[in-house]
Structure formats: structure tokens, C-alpha cells
């Protein structure tokens, strides 16, 4: 009774009894696959706890139900007093037989999906950050170059109109070149090789 293949249950009963069986299975946290509702046909996980709970549920309504329960190995038990007794003996036999101990579940195994999602987020951030920084650097560089061009063109126009001297224009160009080199070193990360 410890195989992973499903237990098949077929119950012929009134709607109220069928609903009672489904509700008690849900309340007992036993997953089931509903094949048909009339007659009630279910597939349940094949384990001792499921058979034990199912046996108690069906026994509580034994006079109002008909049908059978089929184990994964093909053995069929009728849902009457004799079938319940045979199923109970089978359950006792399985419980009294030494079983392999269940493998312990690591506490972190439940968090694997969240950990995968976390690493996906980190991966997307690692891919996004350089593009965002690169885009920001391009905007600042474009604005910086535009500002320098406006200053040079404006000063060149003033020299053309003879409002300022050529020496002042050369001095301004020297200052702007110093700012350009400082900008390239600090903002864009260009450093000298000797340091």
C-alpha cells in the first residue's frame, strides 16, 4: 500500500453522502482526483494514512453506500462489513511490517522556488544595471558636450564681433580642455596607467 499509484474508489450513494465523502477528504487534507460524481469515482494517493482515513469515513456511512475500493496492486474490496474487515486486516498487516524509513526533508527544500525567483531577480538586476548606468552616462556626456559647444561657439562669436580678445578665447579653451579631461577621468572612469 505504499506505492505511488492511485487508489480507486467507486461509491454509489445519495448526493448528500457523496458530498460528505468529498468534504471529509478535503478536511483531512487528502488530495483526490474526481473522475465522476455519480457514481462517485475518485483516485487517491496510495499511502497508509489515506487508506486509514478512508476506511473510517466509509465505515461511518456503511449502511448508506455501495461500491468498491481498488488498491494499486489490483485487489478489490467491497464496501460492506466483510470488505471493511479485510481492508482493516490488510492495513494492520502493512502497519506491522517493517518499512524503510522515510527520507528526512531538508528544511530549506520548501524554499527552493523562492530561491530560484530571487536568483532570477538578481540576474535581471545584474543585466539591467550596466545598461541603465550606461544610458545615464550617455545623457550626461551628451549634455556636457552640448554645454561646451555652446560656450565655445558663443565665445567664438564674441571674438568674431571683437567684443573680447583672442587671448581670452585661448584662455577659455584651455580651461575647457582641463574640464574635459577631469570629466573623462572622474565620470567615465578613465584613469592613468601609472597609478
Overview of this protein structure:
By secondary structure, the protein is of the alpha+beta class. The protein folds into 2 domains: 7-96, no CATH class; 113-186. It has helices spanning 15-27, 48-60, 81-96, 112-160, 166-186, and strands at 7-12, 33-37, 40-44, 66-70, 76-78. Strands 2-3-1-4-5 form a 5-stranded antiparallel sheet. A hairpin with a 5-residue loop joins β4 and β5 (76-78). α4 (112-160) packs antiparallel against α5. The radius of gyration is 40 Å and the shape is rod-shaped.
pLDDT under 50 segments (min length 5)? none
Cα distance spanning the termini: 74 Å
Number of domains: 2
Order of helices and strands: EHEEHEEHHH
Helical residue percent band: 55-70%
* Whole-angstrom Rg: 40 Å
Largest sheet: 5 strands, antiparallel
The amount of beta strand, in percent, is 5-15%
Structural class: alpha+beta
3D shape: rod-shaped
| Spatial strand sequence of the major β-sheet | 2-3-1-4-5
**How many β-strand runs?**
5
Mean pLDDT: 82
Number of helices: 5
Task: Summarize the topology.
Blueprint: E1 7-12, H1 15-27, E2 33-37, E3 40-44, H2 48-60, E4 66-70, E5 76-78, H3 81-96, H4 112-160, H5 166-186
Brief description of this entry?
With 195 residues, the protein is α+β, with helices and mostly antiparallel strands. The protein is 57% helix and 12% strand.
Spell out the key features of this protein.
single chain, 195 residues, alpha+beta, 5-stranded antiparallel sheet, 12% strand, rod-shaped
Amino acid at each position: 500500500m505504499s506505492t505511488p499509484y492511485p487508489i480507486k474508489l467507486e461509491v454509489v450513494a445519495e448526493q448528500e453522502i457523496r458530498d460528505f465523502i468529498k468534504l471529509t477528504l478535503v478536511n483531512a487534507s487528502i488530495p483526490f482526483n474526481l473522475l465522476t460524481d455519480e457514481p462517485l469515482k475518485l483516485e487517491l494517493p496510495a499511502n497508509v494514512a489515506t487508506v486509514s482515513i478512508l476506511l473510517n469515513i466509509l465505515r461511518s456511512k456503511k449502511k448508506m453506500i455501495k461500491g468498491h475500493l481498488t488498491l494499486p496492486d489490483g485487489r478489490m474490496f467491497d464496501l460492506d462489513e466483510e470488505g471493511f474487515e479485510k481492508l482493516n486486516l490488510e492495513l494492520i498487516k502493512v502497519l506491522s511490517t517493517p518499512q524503510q524509513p522515510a527520507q528526512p526533508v531538508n528544511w530549506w527544500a520548501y524554499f527552493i522556488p523562492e530561491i530560484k525567483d530571487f536568483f532570477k531577480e538578481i540576474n535581471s538586476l545584474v543585466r539591467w544595471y550596466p545598461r541603465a548606468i550606461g544610458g545615464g552616462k550617455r545623457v550626461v556626456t551628451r549634455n556636457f558636450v552640448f554645454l561646451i559647444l555652446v560656450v565655445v561657439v558663443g565665445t567664438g562669436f564674441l571674438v568674431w564681433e571683437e567684443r573680447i580678445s583672442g587671448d581670452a578665447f585661448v584662455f577659455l579653451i584651455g580651461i575647457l580642455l582641463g574640464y574635459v579631461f577631469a570629466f573623462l577621468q572622474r565620470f567615465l572612469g578613465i584613469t592613468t596607467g601609472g597609478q
